[in-house]
Automatic annotation (TrEMBL), chain A:
Name listed for the protein in its UniProt record: Glutamyl-tRNA(Gln) amidotransferase subunit C
Domain of life (superkingdom): Bacteria
Basic and acidic residues composition-biased segments: 67-81
Region (Disordered): 57-81
Alphabetical list of Gene3D superfamilies matching this protein: Glu-tRNAGln amidotransferase C subunit, N-terminal domain
Pfam families xref list: GatC
Gene Ontology biological process terms in this record: regulation of translational fidelity
Classification via SUPFAM superfamilies: Glu-tRNAGln amidotransferase C subunit
Length: 93, 475
């Protein structure tokens, strides 16, 4: 991983970092991938990928109304809200 | 006092719920140096205890009637701060209740507080918490394990007789081993994940801590339920785990690992393991050697899948709907600053790893391959359970270790989970219990069982604890 790759990765992750810290971050990620790369020694051709241990299929429930998602309660947890809306910085110039 | 004695005394009216609650709260404050709690709810807990005492007949027969309990601060509690030990949720008050805490309330327990943990459950030493590390009650410079370190410390220090935790890669069993108590990770799907802040949704599973298997059985009775609100909740007939402890376990075939001494497990832990095997043999069980040479590859798979799911789950924290927000006049900057300030270093690192392994060029090389390793692990256990009833192995490589040890070798912390991760990848239940003492510190061992064999796991541990005293030794 080089600095450009890390910069892209940081942007995709919406995580910020100072450029002077890049070498330290790259080193840490390399150490972890060094451990993960041991997977490459395995012969996995016979195995299908496994997403979920019980291989459950999603269940659905009735699309019925309840009072759980009260707008007022949920908006109250927003760092910034105005009447019925979440407030964010201006997006369209 | 352990859970069984406390409940007996409450039921016999020898002690009131209020006295029990006051005692727990007093201890929580007295041992505040442990940093086991992020919040305590003194007034509400005492009020509920008083209500229970005034309505004694309605509560005396409930599984957890009148019993103070500590919940890991990962479970949403309506109207009560839930932080996941992160600056991101430092001031978050959920508008709804998790199924686990709701089930525990309904079973008559009294929540005295929410326990400290590794931030977003990412860690094995409880050092990544925004609220500072938890101290192991066995030594002030020692870690309690993680990520459910506060819950384990609460039970080990006798603050509460019961606590809840979550286990994604060993986060119940490893702290249970390091703190000298019993902890169970149930089969994936047995306990609802509704209202439990998500880290790695395909592995996260909540479970109980107690001093012994009896307490774990009672708490699991309360926690486990089918829940339509969790799409991976298992629909099964309700088992009464406490009743299952009365039955005979019979003569079991127990799987043990060939070449276990090649895994880097400490001499003391291997010695305790051998001693436990002798006790099990005396109880009529026999051993079958298993070849599990693939065990070590579990870590590689886990540290791809867990960060991948973490990067996806934690994408919701953007400073708009809830949680920490960094003020900015630009939306892109707002996201970036909010997430950089709100997440700690370990969480940021795992998000980066997860984003990397899910990105277009690396999906097959990492994520798909890790899922294949996961299948291999499950197939291996499926094969084992054709010839054995349980697998028995130590819980950890080492006993409780000094704080800051992991900073010099970042992968060392990940290796802490070597023996616990396989059960998470396969979604199997496993119980860790104290099985020795060395250097004045506890040692833990674990049984891994087939799917939904919690009754057997609890019962064999209970039978072992009837003839041994390791679970009674306190710091």
């Amino acid at each position: 991983m080089d600095k450009i790759e890390l910069k892209n990765l940081l942007f995709l992750s919406r995580i910020g970092a100072k450029e002077e810290d890049y070498p330290k971050i790259i080193e840490k990620l390399k150490t972890t991938f060094g451990m993960i790369d041991q997977m490459n020694e395995l012969d996995l051709d016979q195995f299908e990928p496994l997403n979920n241990p019980l291989e459950l299929t999603n269940v659905s429930r009735a699309d019925s109304e309840d009072d759980r998602n009260s707008k007022k309660e949920f908006l109250a947890e927003s760092p910034k809200s105005d009447d019925d809306f979440f407030v964010v910085p201006k997006i369209v110039e | 006092m352990n859970f069984k004695d406390i409940r007996e005394r409450f039921r016999n009216k020898e002690i009131s719920a209020k006295e029990l609650t006051k005692d727990s709260l007093d201890k929580a404050h007295k041992y505040s140096n442990l940093n086991a709690f992020i919040s305590t709810f003194d007034e509400d807990a005492l009020k509920k205890a008083e209500y229970i005492d005034n309505n004694f007949n309605d509560y005396k027969d409930l599984a957890l009637g009148g019993i103070p309990i500590a919940h890991k601060d990962i479970f949403c509690t309506k109207g009560k701060r839930t932080t996941c030990a992160s600056k991101m949720l430092e001031n978050f008050t959920p508008p709804y209740e998790s199924t686990v805490t709701s089930n525990c309330h309904q079973a008559g327990s009294i929540m005295i507080g929410k326990t400290n943990m590794d931030e977003f459950a990412m860690g094995s030493s409880n050092e990544t918490s925004f609220f500072g590390p938890v101290i192991n009650p066995w030594g002030e410079s020692l870690v309690p394990g993680g990520s459910s370190g506060g819950s384990a410390a609460s039970v080990a220090a006798d603050i509460t007789s019961l606590a809840t935790g979550t286990d994604t890669g060993g986060s119940i069993r490893q702290p249970a081993a390091l703190c000298g108590i019993t902890g169970l990770k149930p089969t994936y799907g047995l306990v609802s994940r509704w209202g439990m802040i998500a880290f790695c949704s395909s592995m996260d599973q909540a479970g109980p801590f107690a001093r012994d298997a009896f307490g774990c059985a009672a708490l699991l009775d309360a926690m486990a339920s089918y829940d339509a609100k969790d799409s991976t909740s298992a629909q099964r007939d309700k088992v009464k785990y406490e009743d299952a402890l009365r039955g005979d376990v019979g003569n079991l075939k127990i799987g043990i690992l060939r070449d276990i001494d090649q895994l880097g497990i400490s001499e003391e832990i291997l010695k305790a393991y051998e001693n436990s095997k002798t006790v099990l043999e005396k109880q009529g069980h026999s051993f079958v050697e298993l070849d599990f040479s693939e065990l070590s590859s579990g870590i590689c798979s886990y540290y791809v899948i867990a960060p991948a799911e973490c990067s996806s789950n934690l994408a919701r924290f953007d400073g708009v709907k809830y949680g920490h927000r960094s003020d900015s006049s630009n939306i892109s900057e707002l996201y970036l600053q909010t997430r950089s300030e709100g997440f700690g270093e370990e969480v940021r690192k795992r998000i980066l790893i997860g984003t990397y392994v899910l990105s277009a060029g690396f999906y097959d090389a990492y994520y798909r391959k890790a899922q294949k390793v996961r299948r291999m692990m499950k197939s291996k256990f499926d094969e084992f359970f054709k010839s054995v009833d349980l697998v028995f192995l130590p819980t950890t490589l080492d006993q409780a270790f000094e704080m800051n040890r992991t900073s010099s070798d970042p992968n060392r912390m990940y290796k802490e989970d070597l023996l616990t991760i396989p059960a998470n990848l396969a979604g199997l239940p496993a119980i860790s219990f104290p099985n020795g003492l060395a250097n004045e510190l506890p040692i833990g061992a674990q049984f891994v069982g087939n799917y939904f064999s919690e009754d057997l796991l609890l019962n064999i541990t209970h039978k072992l604890q009837e003839v041994t005293d390791w679970h009674k030794i306190k710091p």
